[in-house]
Amino acid sequence: MGRPPQADGNISVRTVEPMPGYADLITRSCSALLSAFNECRGCGFELSKRTLLENAILTWSDIVLFAVCALGWTVLRQALSAYIFRPLGRWCALQPKDASKMPESVWKLLFYTASWSYSFYLLFFTQYTFFHDPPSAFYDWKRGMAVPTDIAVAYLIQGSFYGHAIYATLHMDAWRKDSAVMLLHHVITLALITFSYAFRYHNVGILVLFLHDVNDIQLEFTKLNVYLKNRAGVYHLLNDLVSNLGCVSFGTTWFWCRLYWFPLKVLYTTCVSSLQSVPNIPFYFFFNTLLFALTLMNIYWFLYILLFVVKVLTGQMTEVNDVREYDIEGSRKTALHKKQHERPHHNSWKERTRLKNGIVKDKRLKNGIVKDKRL
Question: Which of 2, 89, 144, 371 qualifies as a cystine partner to 99, CB 3.0-4.6 A?
Answer without folding.
Answer: 89
